[in-house]
Every structure is written in C-alpha cells, then in structure tokens.
Amino acid sequence: MTAGGFGSGRVAAASPVRAGVVPPPGGGPQGPSAAVGPAAAPPGGGVDAPVVPPPGDGADPAAAPADAPFSLTLSDLGFALLVLVLSVVATRNVPGLVEIAILQRLPVDAAARYAIGTVIRYLIVIVGTVVAFSSIGVTWSKLQWLAAALTFGLAFGLQEIFANFISGLIILAERPVRVGDTVTVGGVSGVVTRIRMRATTITDWDRKELVIPNKTFITSDVINWTLSDPTLRIIVPVGVSYGADVDVVRSTLLDVAAKHPVVMADPRPQALFLGFGDSTLDFELRVFIPHIDHLLAVRNDMHMSVLKEFRARGIEIAFPQRDLHVRSIGDLAKLAERRDEVVEHAE
Hints:
Strand order of the largest sheet: 4-3-2-1-5
Low-confidence stretches: 1-24, 26-47, 56-64
Radius of gyration: 48 Å
Mean pLDDT: 78
Helix content: 40-55%
Strand content: 5-15%
CATH class of the domain at 74-167: Mainly Alpha
Order of helices and strands: HHHHHEEEEHEEHEEHH
CATH topology of the domain at 74-167: Helix Hairpins
Shape: elongated
Structural class: alpha+beta
Largest sheet: 5 strands, antiparallel
CATH architecture of the domain at 74-167: Orthogonal Bundle
Number of helices: 9
C-alpha cells in the first residue's frame, strides 16, 4: 500500500464520519478531495450503503401527535346516543329476563332475586354511561377535576342523597330489610314493596305508600317482623270473677286455641293464671300463628270464641267493682229535708 493510502487512512481515522454515512467496503477514494456522502460511489461498482437517519432527525408520519385534538363526528354522537338508548332498554328488560331464565331456577327467595336484579340494573347503567362518554372523547382523565369537585359537593350539599344511595347498597348487600318483609320504622308499620336508589317504599295497612329514605333503615331502630322467622305470638288477656273455677277457665281457653285452624300446634298454646287483680283473676291465652298477616283475624276470633265459651260454661268475665260505704247518713237525711222545703217554697 502506498504512502498516500496510509495518509488517507490516518485522515479517515482522525476525521469523524458524518452521521448516517457508512463508508464503502474496501476503502474509499484516496486524498482529501474525495467526496464524502451518500452520492459517493465506491470503486469497482460496489453497491451504495443504506442511509440510516439520525435519531431525532425526522418523525414517523404514521404516528399522530400526542396532543392532537379529538375530532367529534356525527357518527360518534350517533353511536353514543345508541348506547344510551340500548342501556335504557337493557335496564328495563335484562333484570327481568335474568330472573325468569336463571334466578327462578336457583334456590333463592324472591327478595334475593330482587336484590340481584337491582345490582344488575346498576351495572348496566354504569357500563352504558362509560361507553357512551368514551365514544365522544370524554374519558376519565378529562373528568378527574369534575370528579374532585363533585366529591367536594357531596361532602356538603349532597351528603344526604349520597348517604341514602350508600345505605341502599348496604340494604341490598346485607339484606336487613327485604321486599315483602313486614317492618316497623319510626312508628309506621307496613310491608316493604320497593327498594330504590334513594328511598324504600312501605305500604301500610291502610294501603298508603310511605317513601322512607334508605338512611333511616341503617341509622334508626327498625323492627323486622319477618326477617328470619315469621312466626308470631298472640296474647289474649282475660279476667274472670273470683268465684270462677280456675281449672275450668284454663281448660276452656286451651279448647278455644285448639279449635282455631290457624293457631299452630307447635309451639303449643298456653293458658296461664298470672295473678290476682283488684276485681278479677287474671289469665292469659298465648298462641302462635305462622305469619303476621293472620294477626288481626286470629285475635278477633280468639276474643269472640272466648266470650262464647265462657257464657256457655257459666264463667263470668269480671269487671271493675267499687263498694261505697256511707258513714254520715244522718247529715244526708237533713240535707234531703232541706231540699224538700226549698222545693215547697219555690212552688
């Protein structure tokens, strides 16, 4: 190799190569005047080396900028509206379809099926809302500040509504109150007919519908007459005269209870002699019925049957009696004479 070759080799080694230019194999043209770049052809008809773009020099035309604005089209609006309409239709029909096709075939009661249907309805609403807003470009990243402001508002102005909503979820999950239960809350008794997002509807014995906030069932005292055992006890107090035979009274009360078709044989009815009253011997007839629906009817039948049986067997039902002892009868006689004299003078 010539000295020029060594010289050019030293220049090539000392001079930095421009980015993106790969020197041809076999050594380049001699001398500093040789053209360096992608247009320089190697001697001997070699193939041009590929040009590698430097990093950061140019961009991929297929990649969209990260901050490019979202273009909302008419088709996006139509799709979002379609999703909302389908969500409304599904909310009204899917829970009933699931109950008929699946839940009625499972060993779950009506209250559990109602709770599952309500949860399915909530899930459909949430999923439909998320899909509809996503289709028009409204994502969670764009709603974070709105969610923070809404949370702040819930802490003050909407706390009661939010508390009722959470209480409704607790009622559906824990099921302290179910649809069809007979409850007493705040002095009001009735049957639970609906459990909604904000309030629960109770139908009382006068067929009036009372809308009670869900929070009341969680934070207040509630009597559920049919939560775990619908069996109910009825107490019929009765007082007889002191001259009555207590054994006959007791057997008569038990006969009345045994003849009623609704009174349960187990637990057995009881007739108890409780004590001595001012004017009566106090008894109680205690019977059990299978459900609170029979409460008023059975109590009415017990009262009428006890009265008829006592009259038939000669047992007297006592009533309060008072003895009046007059000690100063002489003074009363004088007052009577004076009254007669006043009447005579008036005539």
